[in-house]
Amino acid sequence: MSARIDILSGLGDKGPAAIVVEANVKRILLDAGGALHPGEAITWARGLDVDAVIISHDHVDHIGGVSELPPTLPLYCTPLVAQALPKGRAWQPLPERGTCRIAGIEVTTGQAGHSLGGVWIHLGVEGGIFYSGDACFESQLFPFDTPPPANIALLDASYGTYDQPQQACVDAISEHLNRPLAFPVPESGRALEMALWLAEEADARGLSLAIDPIIRANLKTLLALPATLRRSHSDERIEALLARPDASQPSLKLISDRDDTAAMWPGFHLLHTGYLTPSRCAELSAGDILWQRWNVHLRASHLVELADQINAEHVVPLFTHLSDPALSAWRTLLGARLATEKALFLNNHVLNAIPLNNRSLA
């Protein structure tokens, strides 16, 4: 069975995720990403013709474009991710860890180590096509399942060639805890493990802490899931946090990110730990906010390790810049395995780029 891959969005820059895989005369859309920046149009959905869509997780750059799709298009996601769909949107369950068939294609999923309900996706065609969505090896809360072998790997490279270990990030954030801080975070991702860490740090330092109710609710949801869907030995930490009352006048606040700006939090320093929009980059340059990464994506050595684990012959780094000097660095890291074309064709496990004049999906 030959296969064709068209990366509609997400290659060459940090942008919405949208990838079409065509095999056995069926087309599956992997993720339906929305705009990362206010006011940006979602262009990848124009003229789209697919048989099904699979959503890896509930962050806006992977699920925010669902509203652009026909409401009758079969959509597959895990039950927790379904909660972030537009109200009334029909969906079909995707296993948190397991195998099913979608549009006649064998689909295997596993835990991606990134967010509540998030999974990686493996398609059983042409020696295997693996899509990580967003993934991380370093979470102390969300497990990462080793995927099956795959000929081609479409991997989360959001951090580019950055390779700083998580402990170094945590140590750097710790240096700021002596001042009033508000942390805007995605409520189903790093928020959960940052909540556990901040609670322990607050106790150790005698600091006061308040945690957004929706983050508490997501921790409660995680605790109610089968134990295999969270890291071992995390239950007691989650239970202790849920039993801990919020301080009425906290010096530390963990909040669900609602496009917060420094002006919205007088008396606090805003400390961001993830992707910065252009407006937030301007705030950072002006000294109005703080920033220190908390790892929730594959860093460079882990991306290479994952490619090695699944014996990938071809690796496409997604959601990252692919112009020099970054491109040269990727060539050094991945060698002949590096693939950077938006349109690819697999036949008998051989990968070829599709000429520019033959890239229509119609």
From TrEMBL:
Pfam family membership, one: Lactamase_B_2
UniProt entry keywords in alphabetical sequence: Hydrolase
Single GO MF annotation: hydrolase activity
Domain Metallo-beta-lactamase positions: 15-176
Cited SMART domains: Lactamase_B (SM00849)
Keyword Cell wall biogenesis/degradation in annotation: no
Record bears the keyword Hydrolase: yes
Taxonomy, superkingdom: Bacteria
Record-linked PANTHER family: CLEAVAGE AND POLYADENYLATION SPECIFICITY FACTOR FAMILY MEMBER, INTEGRATOR COMPLEX SUBUNIT 11
Protein name (database record): MBL fold metallo-hydrolase
Native species: Vreelandella populi
